[in-house]
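Model it.
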Amino acid sequence: MRAAKALFIRHGAERTPEGRGLLLLRHWLSPAQRGQFAEKGYFDVVGGDTGNRYRIYAGAATNVCEIDENGRPKTDLCFLPRGDLPIGDVMLAQKIALETCEGSVLAVARKFTPSGFLFSRSRPLR
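Modeled.
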């Protein structure tokens, strides 16, 4: 089901909620983030309060991790907006939250030790 959904999105499903969410997300990404997302299926964000770096993977939960200066995961985070939202909308909300109110995000996010599982092994959503 996931593979079919990704394939559908990749081939111009802009009229669906998932497709529109991904279009909106891409609009808000910087050119570097857009390239990173298209190539690797994730993009990096700098926290607005601490300057820490975070990586947001394609997904709607447990898809954010704080990364060190070498790009290795330090702490995995789980936080997302309420409601049944398309993946692109969730990822955009996570990006904006980390950039504008990082302290509040960290206060409510569930933190856990990285398991070694890498989201980047999945195909990027285009």
